[in-house]
């Protein structure tokens, strides 16, 4: 049951604590395979050369939005991942341990829903989850900034992105075990025909495909953001359209002509 004694707006500024999470090469390689790395991308899948994908950090930080759900700020079984931002400060080592702190940065009142922004900080990255929580709006709060425009006209790059049927079953082993990604009954409860792909898996698959198309190293990702506008099912074929400038790109991702990621942006450096 949701913590109805506490209106959604009262979670603003709520500290979610500090946590240290450790990982090994095996975790980083499993993650890379789950987001579509190929066996010949040795920097991503071979421990002797390993450069963890920066988006792997988001699995290390998944405890933070989960902690807010565990506090019943919203109903975890109904909430959807609405949007994500990642800023890389330092590369992740192939194995290590990272201490992170997290708080509820903002809560937006969307009427029928609330959007909870959870911010996670560490020496290697800053990340922000926006969790769309149906039934938690109408608390008299601010609606928040309007959605940023999607990629400008004049697409320069189109990339086909293949997802695969077992992808959500594999990705969940990397740290996000919400039932909607594996249990048909849980997926039906949110109106989906079968378990859906994790938004972060779709976003990371997009960042990997985009890096390949730009000729950038995927481990050189510096910034990434995107807004999840419709669910993706494992096995869907997606199309990424980007307007690029050097190693920066504004992008959208679509499934059969319907946008599934809007307002995407990625920047790769070295
Ligand atoms: C634990 C889960 C983990 C996961 O990985 S879940 C899988 C990944 N996520 C998804 O598949 C979600 C896909 N997105 C959707 O299905 C829909 O998209 C939503 C259900 C999230 C929202 O759709 P709708 O209910 O039709 O809302 P609206 O009428 O489009 O917008 C109502 C207000 O909510 C804001 N909003 C809509 N989508 C998002 C979003 N994705 N992130 C943040 N805010 C959002 C809008 O802007 C607007 O507010 P304004 O009127 O003030 O503009």
Automatic annotation (TrEMBL):
GO biological process, one term: fatty acid beta-oxidation
Residue intervals of the Peroxisomal multifunctional enzyme type 2-like N-terminal domain: 23-123
Domain MaoC-like as annotated: residue spans: 160-253
Coiled-coil intervals: none
Domain of life, source organism: Bacteria
Any Pfam family matching the protein: MaoC_dehydratas
Gene Ontology MF: a single term: enoyl-CoA hydratase activity
Entry-linked InterPro entries: HotDog_dom_sf (IPR029069), MaoC-like_dom (IPR002539), MFE-2_N (IPR054357)
UniProt family annotation: Belongs to the enoyl-CoA hydratase/isomerase family.
UniProt name for this protein: Enoyl-CoA hydratase
Biological source species: Actinomadura rudentiformis
């Amino acid at each position: 049951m949701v913590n109805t004694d506490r209106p959604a707006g009262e979670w603003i500024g709520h500290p979610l604590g500090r946590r240290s999470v450790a990982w090994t090469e095996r975790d980083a390689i499993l993650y890379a395979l789950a987001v579509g790395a190929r066996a010949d991308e040795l920097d991503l899948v071979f421990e002797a050369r390993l450069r963890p994908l920066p988006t792997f950090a988001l699995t290390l930080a998944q405890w933070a939005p989960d902690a807010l759900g565990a506090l019943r700020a919203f109903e975890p079984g109904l909430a959807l991942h609405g949007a994500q931002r990642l800023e890389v400060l330092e590369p992740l080592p192939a194995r290590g341990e990272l201490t992170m702190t997290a708080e509820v940065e903002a809560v937006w009142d969307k009427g029928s829903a609330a959007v909870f922004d959870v911010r996670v900080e560490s020496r290697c990255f800053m990340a922000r989850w926006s969790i769309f929580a149906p039934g938690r709006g109408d608390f008299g709060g601010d609606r928040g900034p309007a959605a940023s425009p999607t990629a400008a006209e004049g697409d320069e790059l189109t990339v086909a992105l293949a997802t695969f049927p077992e992808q959500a079953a594999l990705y969940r082993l990397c740290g996000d075990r919400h039932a909607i990604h594996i249990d048909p009954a849980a997926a039906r409860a949110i109106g989906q025909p079968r378990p859906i792909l994790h938004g972060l898996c779709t976003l990371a698959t997009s960042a990997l495909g985009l890096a390949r198309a730009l000729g950038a190293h995927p481990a050189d990702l510096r910034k990434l953001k995107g807004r999840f506008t419709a669910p993706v099912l494992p096995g869907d074929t997606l199309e990424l359209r980007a307007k690029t400038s050097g190693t920066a790109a504004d992008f959208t991702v679509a499934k059969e002509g319907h946008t599934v990621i809007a307002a995407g942006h990625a920047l790769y450096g070295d």
